[in-house]
Amino acid sequence: MNNKKIYLIGNAHIDPVWLWRWQEGFAEVKATFRSALDRMNEFPEFVFTSACAAYYKWVEENAPEMFEEIKKRVKEGRWAIVGGWWIQPDCNIPSGESFVRHALYSQRYFLEKFGVMAKVGYNVDSFGHNGMLPQILKKSGMDYYVFMRPGNHENSRVPGNLFWWESPDGSRVMAYRIPTGYGTSWGEIDKKIEDTMRIAEEQGIDLMAFYGVGNHGGGPTVKNLESIKRLKEERYGDALIMSSPDEYFEAMSERCVDLPVYRDDLQHHASGCYSTVSEIKANNRRAEHALLVAEKFATIAYNLVDLPYDGKRIQRAWEKVMFNQFHDIMGGCSIKDAYTDARDFHGEALYTAADVLNSALQKMSWAVDTMGDIEKVRSKEKDWSLWEYDDCGTPVVVFNPHSWKVKAPVIINRLVKGVTDDRGNPVALQKIRGPQTNGRDDKWNTLFVADVPAMGYRVYWLYLNKEFEVNSKGSLVADDTSLENDYIRLEIEPHTGYIRRLYDKKNNVEILSDKGAVPVVIDINHCDTWAHGVFEFRDEIARFSDAKVKLIENGPIRAKLRVINKYNDSILRQDFILYRHKPDIEVEVKLDWREKHKMLKLSFPVNVLKPKATYEIPYGFIERPVNGEEEPGQQWIDLTGEQEGMVYGLALLNNSKYSFDIKDNDMRMTVVNGSIYADHFGVRDEFCEFMDQGIQEFRYALIPHKGTWQDSFIPRKAYEFNVKLMHVQETYHRGPLPQKMEGIKISKDNVIATVFKKAEDGNGYILRCYETNGVNSDVEIEVPALKRKWKATFGKCEIKTFRIPEDNEKEITECNLIEF
């Protein structure tokens, strides 16, 4: 007699890309769906469960007759739609807004095509799950979550197989960890059911058992279903239920409200996948930001200058980005050819973003009145590049995509002698080397620092021959091994290229306890691509050294030291940059990597006691122990502790890296992972190919701070570091727009607006904001161009989505992430 019930979930885990390319995955989706429909005709009690909106769209477009069959099975309740996302992504690497887009586009697709939305989040094979997912799931219409990794051997703190998973804002989903795998391969399922029943009896709770051939699709077989029929008749009777995750969770919700609560992310599985295939991760970051920026300015241009808004085109680009976030693609564990395809997908998305953005910026800049009081002639009498007339200057419109005022560098592809702002105030400039080598003298560009309103623009004026006296505040001093301003001093050790000293002059703090920016080579010969079962990478075998240090820039705005060091045939070039007006150290890196079965980390031992580590995760942050385990992070990590009676810390920003570890006070960023492509503990031979060989470029920054990272606006700085100001060099024209425009005002620094777009249904605008610092906040938000102002209350780490009707008589309302 069995006291517990087992809900049998017929499914087919399909990797659209892994040891094959997407075209093969496409064919497998169709074959598997056809097989599931065949089984339904043969076994009236069979229920099939399937996720991933992308797969349904493939079938809709390529096999429409089968799609109609699926619609009928969904309607009668025998085909369960779960997941609510585009595919089953890596759940650490994508940004917070990427997860929102998975739900936004997929849930609306499911509702349109099938009349239902997924209630169950479903990522059975993803390699870990960030701690903000409960809020994102809940606000996307999903109350439940199914996952399998990490297993109990990887994270024994997870309280059983059924529990409440809670994010920092207090959102909860009922989560289920699959105890016996998501499939049954080709064998009998007797043992799977027996093992699941044993666990159910031990835990005193009903469980789900997943069956069906997976990975390369297939799904439940005739033999599976015949075995289930036999087991029901001979042994288990009504204790076996042919079912769906929805039915299971509904039953558990009625009976199991007193479940344990888990408040953390779900790690670790496949820690190597945080760093494998640098290119896919760098392109993901670029594409995510590029689409959000394009969308913002397309929306602003729609409102200000009547530029048509093509939301469907933007969605198609997001679909390419979301597909590349599939866990075996973004996780860097697929075959090499898959990354050629991924590059093409990202290329399409990045081009779309660039085209949409360019149309918006050009339409707006063309509408700015740059003629002024003097009627200027548009004729290139003076210069082949700039439209300057009679020493009146040439306008350049600088745009800021962020929801706060930004002061940041702008590089103009021309050497000029003077720059002023929109009011004629002189601005400091610097001659810098450009990317061109055109003739004898045309190899120089101009750098200046712009101060641009939030989500707006400002006109600056470039002068070919007029020079201005600028009273630059503060000092900036550089020599062959050091950079120094009023805030900080950086010293490089000449023979190694390491940071010898990083000194905070204002607070009298030695920031590092030992050498910094040390390139540490780690042995990973014992790891497969995923680094299964490996949680720390600290088998140090060498360090880059034999350095050359050279001062390559030294001007009134910034100075730059170039450091080149070597290890074997690999070369690391780091350009350390210090600006006059801030204490932050920015570093531009070019790495030529030739190592196999080795990993490269950059080490920064922070001079603090009682260190506390914080990592950015999608739409939030998380504190983790300083135990040396490899951890996923996003645009920033931070180590803060005690220093001479004060709270002090160092934040590390990056523009394309996701893998870090902190042991005690040593903060490390994983730069490159020289594993074999798709090596699953296989027999290695001379045909194996190694990832990340050759040149890659990226940037990072060091942000020292007195007080907590919240006090120093680290999330804002990370966004500014990843998304630069952009500009359009213009000519003279009349127009309805002023030379300076502010697009948004948010009264609290800890609330960031990440999304400004047209609503999916075309009814008004969507503004999405989130709280960055983990504190409750009452906020006033204003969008001047829409003539709208309102108040809102944010909980800690809360994401809020506002619908702003175009009719100003209608009220602004909060909606969920899928805009309902």
Large-scale geometry = globular
Largest sheet: 9 strands, antiparallel
Global mean pLDDT:
97
Ends apart, CA distance between termini: 47 Å
Query: What percent of residues are in strands?
Result: 25-35%
Adjacency order of strands in the biggest sheet: 24-25-26-27-36-33-32-29-30
Low-confidence stretches: none
Oligomer: single chain
Radius of gyration: 28 Å
Helix proportion of residues, in percent?
10-25%
The CATH class assignment of the largest domain is Alpha Beta
The CATH architecture category of the largest domain equals Alpha-Beta Barrel
Compute the number of helices: 13
Number of strands: 45
In CATH terms, the superfamily of the largest domain is Glycoside hydrolase 38, N terminal domain
The number of domains = 5
Structural class: alpha+beta
GO molecular function: alpha-mannosidase activity; carbohydrate binding; metal ion binding
Keywords: Glycosidase, Hydrolase, Metal-binding
Pfam family, one: Glyco_hydro_38C
Family: Belongs to the glycosyl hydrolase 38 family.
Structural account:
It is a single chain. The strands form 9 sheets. This protein has a 9-stranded antiparallel sheet with strand order 24-25-26-27-36-33-32-29-30. Strands 23-22-28-35-34-31 form a 6-stranded antiparallel sheet, with no helix packed on it. Strands 1, 2, 3, 8 and 9 form a 5-stranded parallel sheet that branches. Strand 42 and strand 43 form a beta hairpin. It has 5 domains: 6-269, 7-stranded beta/alpha barrel; 275-367, Glycoside hydrolase family 38, central domain (Substrate Binding Domain Of Dnak, Chain:A, Domain 2), CATH 1.20.1270; 394-471 and 725-729, Immunoglobulin-like (Sandwich); 476-722, Beta-galactosidase, Chain A, domain 5 (Distorted Sandwich); 744-820, Immunoglobulin-like. The mean pLDDT is 97. The chain is built from 13 helices and 45 strands. The two termini are 47 Å apart. It has 820 residues and is α+β, with helices and mostly antiparallel strands. It is globular, with a radius of gyration of 28 Å. Helices cover 24% and strands 33% of the residues. The longest helix is centred in the middle third of the chain and has 32 residues, at 336-367.
